[in-house]
Amino acid sequence: MVARADFEHSDGAKGAEVRFTGRLTLARLGDLPARLDALGPIATLDLSALDRIDTVGAWIVTRTAKEHGSKIVGASAEGQRLLDALASDKSEYRVHRVRRPAWARMLEQIGTASIAIWHELLGIIGFFGAMIIALGIQIRARRRLRWNAVVTRFQAVGVDALPIIGLMSFLIGIVIAQQGAVQLEQFGLEVFTINLVGRASIRELGLLMTAIMVAGRSGSAFAAQIGTMKLTEEVDAMRTIGVSPMEAIVLPRVAASTVTMPLLGFYASLCAIAGGGLYCWVGLDIPPLTYIQRLREIIPMTDFWIMLIKAPVFGILIGVTGCYEGMQVRQDAEEVGQRTTSAVVAAIFLVIVLDAFFAVFFSSLGWN
Amino acid sequence: MAGETEIEIREELAAADAIRPEKFDRAICIRGLRNQFGDAVIHDDLNLDVRSGEILGVVGGSGTGKSVLMRSIIGLQIPAAGEIEVYGKTLDTITNEEESRDLRRRWGVMFQGGALFSTLSVAENIQVPLREYYPRLDQKLLDEIAAYKVQMVGLPSDAGPKFPAELSGGMVKRAGLARALALDPALLFLDEPTAGLDPIGAAKFDELLRGLADTMGLTVFLITHDLDTLYATCDRVAVLAEKKVIAVGTIPELLATEHPWIQEYFNGPRGRAAANCNQTQAPHDRKS
Fold it and tell me: What is the ipTM, given to two decimal places?
């Protein structure tokens, strides 16, 4: 076994002398740097007994020599080359970012985040405008919408989402019915469970849950797809060829999500009603026929219109947010992940905010 | 506690003794290598030796498997047949984790795109191998090592805290080289280090590589398309064609062979231009 890096320490005539032995390399360093630092002033560093030295060893010798102002003797030709390579001044070479105190960084983060949210909102609105202009140009130039692309997105956004949205809505219908029945039973009004499930599903929950699911499934997919296309410069290539990315990438996706949302929302409402019906039948002994008849009496047509008005708006919102975030990718793979996350978060947040506005608006119209 | 550290150090030292690069005349020894993807055979009965201390350039047309050859040596691609020894060890026969780590410690690899970890700064990228193999190094020394590696590869003094996305193409290559050199390896693999650099940047990189190889006594396995790099840095050149290494030797030796691809490669318009530029230099007598 080769000896690890070590040193002998002796007091010579001209001051303390350190004589390194063994192999002064990264692998055999052990605790040598700490022991070396513990010594007092050193006048001479003797390298003549070393078997081998690498850049880390040479750096330790250089740094010790600089610290104590000591002389380096007995370096081999190879060692001397390394020492020469490391001799220049490295004090200006920085390794870490300049760190400000914690409170300053916190303030800075709050500030940057606020500005970022504001810019994001402006960006989404601006992007929406640009999309409308692109649509206008396309219509005026009598260029056809890219139906192939639209249909492909239709499949991905709509048809492929049917099983998961159906299952989710069905289960939510059961949960609403069950939780509602528990409360209403206390007043002997369990029959009103039908009102609860029917109106909540059509008016709010079916569509809202669908919007959340579509934002998670498709909004994120839009952002990631477009973001990756930006990274591989596909979008730039498109522009140079003369194909407008708005027309080729964005419009088909937004069109797909806009058309799909009302369909999915209606489908989700039906599934939720079916789930509620199942619970009423099994848990409350209300037969399905009675359930359906009662639904016809209590759900006003306006609830249905409300859903149909909200759905395309949510669809546009999800599509635009996803595409916008994808288009914002500039640098690296990590940014694709960040942008995908913010596409989903922003879409869900904006959908819920808009939904609140719609609720107030329709109530004041008297559509109760 | 002190006793425990002592034992740890001893174990580390014992493991470190398993491979002694300086004892080998040939760093890499490849015999009968065969690589294939499905039916497509990339290498068949390929033989190649890399001598310790030399810079070996590997050239070949597109699709001749230069990168695949490098990936086989470093164990990223499992060969269909044949044997690859690096410092007397064969990666596929190494079963114990210690030994394979010990072998990996001896080489540094720089991938074509730099392959820097995008979530870490340049300095942290350089420290990744150091932390992995020597977890007990203190932070101060780690930072100093990162700083001098940054300087050695010729990056500017403010490059350490930057993230890969903030660097230019040439700086990414240099940072990749710094990370490859983090453990002071004996053997360095470079995949197209000058691809995508402008001629001035490429020439500076060649110079840097030659200098580092001389200072640190490196053995370099260099895949390149760049004729200027071949003339300026390589001791020997291996030519990949027809699923084999068809010739290995210094450039004058290769020029003496009759093989049409080699003739076309070195005597084409670009080959001649590169040769004229480098006539005045004598790149092959480094070891004398």
Answer: 0.76
